[in-house]
Amino acid sequence: MALEAYASRNPDTVHTDVLSEARQACYKARDAFYACLEKESNKAPTEIASVGLLYPSECKGSRAEFVKHCRASWVKHFDRQYCRNRRVQRLLDDKDSRRGV
After folding, report:
1. What is the pLDDT of residues 13-31, one digit of tens each?
2. What does 18-66 look like in DSSP terms, one character per residue?
3. Which residue in 40, 60, 70, 79 could disulfide with 26, CB within 3.0 to 4.6 Å?
């Protein structure tokens, strides 16, 4: 219902950020940023992103590309997803290390 109301207000507007090419560019920028986070994980985080995600200054360029190519709501979603996955992985690693004791 909300989609129908939105479409009726803007019948001729094409949102390029939801088109396939724009989505692929967003995913590519996202993957580059999170790869940088993994690569630079041993460095102290100095920058703050959405939802409290901290990252080193070496990843500033890839973060800017990520934010430029993706909708703000997508960036927030991907940041939350990354933080959640890291937290789960940390908990699983901690549980495995206790198991051997």
Report:
1. 766 656 888 899 999 999 9
2. GSHHHHHHHHHHHHHHHHHHHHTTTSPP-EE-GGG-EE-GGGHHHHHHH
3. 70
